[in-house]
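Entry for the shared binder. Reason: the reviewer on the internal report wants the predicted structure included alongside the sequence.
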Amino acid sequence: MATQHSRSAARLMMAPAVILLLGWMLVPLVMTLWFSFRNYFPLRPDREPSFAGFDNYVRFISSSSFWPSIQATLIIVGGALLITVIFGVLLGILLNQPMWGQGMVRILVIAPFFVMPTVSALVWKNMFMDPTNGLLAHLWRFFGADPVVWVSDASLVSIIMIVSWQWLPFATLILLTAIQSLDGEQLEASEMDGAPVLKRFWYIILPHLSRAITIVILIETIFLLSIFAEIFVTTGGAFGSRTLTYLIYQRVLESQNVGLGSAGGVYAIILANIVAIFLMRIVGKNLDA
């Protein structure tokens, strides 16, 4: 049993790391809040910093692009989560089966997660989604259909496809690990009792994966709410693909006002916390089950 002296020593040794972590988290947050109440133009020396109050917040939320950007953000997050979870479960089950070169196949499936977002967006835009020479255009022509101009005609779908390709390996890795922890004797017993494949999946495998699925949803959502490079490279925020993060970037460039962008950042923090609280309630229910 740890004594009072050992607990005090442990707290003392952990204190520098905790202080550094709190500073790393709180200092940018406090600076964002501070600048959000000011007009600050670092690239315009002719404009002096001044106190703005809530004007930056009112200007940002009253923009006609604010609510469409929230909608686009939630559509991209929801679409990417749906694709990565469904196909992550299927790929996890598939990769858990004995096959030749199983280790190499797993590495190839996980590899896209290590590709930089800018690189993957460029590859998808130029090699797959180009309406003239893209692979999808050739596929459409093979079946006698007109190629789709993905970036303009299906901008949100394009971004969801790119982001899902990036995050599918992460979901597959987490879910494959969860599948490998499933008791094989339970599956063998259900198979001997004559349970069909779909019922074994629905009543045994899927409940076992519930915790892993909720963790995948939570972690992916945190990162997907702030996607930027994929939009910057493909659509440039046009054609209804402007998310809240990209709207903040555009507002700062247009006004050169860091305060206005900081107010948008506070709105982004509020949105992220609302989504995180909602997801944490789901995670808590699954963990308590």
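Summary line for the report: The first strand starts at residue 38 and ends at 39.
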